[in-house]
Amino acid sequence: MSEHSLLTMTNINKSFNRVTVLKDVKLCVEQGEVHALLGENGAGKSTLMNILGGVLQPDEGSIYLNGKEVKMLNPRLAQSNGISFIHQELNVVADLAIYENMFLGVELRNKFGFLNVRDMCDKTTEIMTKLGVDIDPKEYVRNLDTSYKQLIEIAKALLHNSSIIIMDEPTSALAEHEVERLFDLMRKLKESGVSIIYISHKLKEIQAVCDSYTILRDGEMVGSGKVKEGSLETITKLMVGKSVSDKRLYQEHELGAKILEVKNLSSPGLFKQIDFTLHQGEILGFTGLAGDGRSELFESIFGFRKNYTGEIKVNNEVVKINHPKKALKAGIGLVPKDRKENAIIKDLSVIHNMSLSSMGHFEKKGFIHEKTEKDRFQHYKDQLNIKVHDPNVTIDKLSGGNQQKVVIAKWLEVNANVIIFDNPTQGIDVGAKTEIYEHIVQLAEQGKAIIILSSEAPEVLRICHNINVMYHGEIIARFKREDASEDEIMGYATGAKKEAEIIG
Ligand SMILES: Nc1ncnc2c1ncn2[C@@H]1O[C@H](COP(=O)(O)OP(=O)(O)OP(=O)(O)O)[C@@H](O)[C@H]1O
Ligand SMILES: [Mg+2]
Q1: In the CATH scheme, what is the homologous superfamily, with its name and number, of domain 245-331+457-504?
Q2: Whose alpha carbon is nearest atom 13 of ligand 1?
Q3: What pTM does this model have?
């Protein structure tokens, strides 16, 4: 144990049902640094942080703060030891005001026992100002952007004078400019002596904001060091156990018949005059910043939203889609962006979550064909490297990224002719990302038509044949893949370039 470290965790061991998840793990964090905790999906990052945050107890091992051993018996105790945890799935309550969220469980009361709203609001404003945000403390959280929800969690950490803030994949739901704001904030916190443990699968972020790193692989610590001294390649190699290429996966092939045609689709305040065509075998990307309307556009095409005008043609026939059932019937599938809210059923087993909407495949005379279901699951488990010891456990026992892989597998299994993937690789590690993309490319080769929605230009550049950039609800530019570059796409996505380039 280093005597000078602010935090030292040593010999941490943890098993669930006799499956070892953490083995003799060691983690040292210095004061005033941003420390990256890295590793593949299921490597044990969230579990290790749950132990530090008092959510889980280790089977063995010790935690030292400034050289003194502490026991994090519950989250409250961890909090009083100066540790705040911003979870992978954000924890703010939408139906409460900002100040109520800030003081949840630690409400200020006056001497008569009544809530002291004014003081709570003042304190909230004080901290928000410190964070550089001008916001009404009485605003309801449900009216706010995701990045503000995160901000509330950070503000809460400051309210408790935390010395260590754990951020578990904080940027997976943030737009580009929100990420920048978070990074500025992290730098400010660092300057004031706060340490941050930062979990992310985005290596660029690690380079931009982290000072040092620790890497877990299959529950073991396999490396640590200073970010400046290690190259991203070595770090990736340690994480995944092999090198990962970021080559383009796009395959040139003849596109088939026109399968989906959208004409003049508009929805007040969300998107307007959307025109595009999609062919069999085509992978078409839609990218832009948050608020560009792409998710709302495809939620409308899939029938989640009804308030739109214009025309949708599938196989040259006009269809009226006002319910997801109609979309599925027309052969359109959608993998929604928000896993927790839209795509999984928490109390259902892993295997049933996968077979959920492709039941037809596994049903024989009304009975679910268990063997087929199992075989298909095994197939995806191997292909996408889904880490699960027993597919009959409920899906919430899986790590965040592995839950996402199950959602993707489910849709790869569905027999839709058009599949829309909204932000498919959220929370997926670099190695598995490539595998998911390879699957999508294969689907296209088999003649399926694919739409990818993503805020990351490099992602669409890797697999798409054609790319549409959206800005404020409109398609502002269309590229053939060979003409597109990251800079060019960003130029349009940010509104810096306005002339739409229509390709013939
Ligand atoms: N409550 C639980 N019961 C059983 N197994 C669990 C439980 N919580 C986590 N696990 C298992 O522990 C392993 C590590 O999970 P953890 O959530 O720590 O991974 P992670 O590194 O955070 O991954 P990701 O990047 O996907 O979020 C996984 O194999 C997971 O299935
Ligand atoms: Mg995790």
Answers
A1: P-loop containing nucleotide triphosphate hydrolases (3.40.50.300)
A2: 42
A3: 0.82
